[in-house]
Amino acid sequence: MAQANRLKSLLVSLLLAVLTLSFLYPLYYMLINSLKSRAAYFTNPFSLPAGKLELINYATMVSQFRILNLFKNSFVVAALTVVILLVVGTFASYVFAKYRFKGRGVLYVAVLVTMFIPSQVTIIPLYVLFSRIGLVNTYWSVILSYVALFLPEAILLMTANFRSIIDELLEAAEIDGCNYFQKVWNVVLPMGRAAIFLSIIFYFIMSWNDLFTPMIFLQSMEKRTVMVALAALMGRYTGAPTLQFAGLLLSAVPALVVYIIFQRQIIRGLSVGALK
What we know:
It contains 13 helices and no strands. It is mainly α. It folds into two domains: about 1-55; about 55-275, Orthogonal Bundle (MetI-like fold), CATH 1.10.3720.10. The longest helix is centred in the C-terminal third of the chain and has 35 residues, at about 240-275.
């Protein structure tokens, strides 16, 4: 039995190591080639940089392509999307999880059914609607599109998590004089922090990496997101792969930072939920 458990642990560890390498290798490949000259890349794209590192690729992305401004645009869109999703999704999920009212099941299913509507189907009606109210070529057109697209999934995730909160804790908070918002702040958020931080990671990365929606709604060059700009870069500079690798690697950094910051909070949230 002990040998079987050790063999199982070894196989799981090997599988996780292979998966980790498969995820990290693209970043490694982009890093080593973004530090090479174009000639060195075409000579051997799999070798480490030899001699002087070509930091000019990163300098070009910052100075010529103004990637920091693109980062600002993408961050505004992704951050506001996550904030609105958390506020609306938390209160809606708490109601679905803990309140009993007529038609709750039907309303919950109706919300979840919208998950199966492809975003491509709704893009034309949304564009017509936003153009009539003057939101085309504004951040809000992209943000509201993301909220409508991601909110059913967020409600599904947080509702399942909030249902595990013990009713006696909410009753005790109510006896202590907590109103609706205080119960959400003092009980629901601490107990459901695993789902909340998972939503932050997932929907920030989804918003940051999306190309389709901002390409449709953001027409101004000053407001385009980093993914839209990189798509233009890939089409315009097909003969400069090292520059492309520098842009792709830089665009991945913010999403990685968000993941590194909040993934520990998910584990802490699970621990808090278990203890409480």
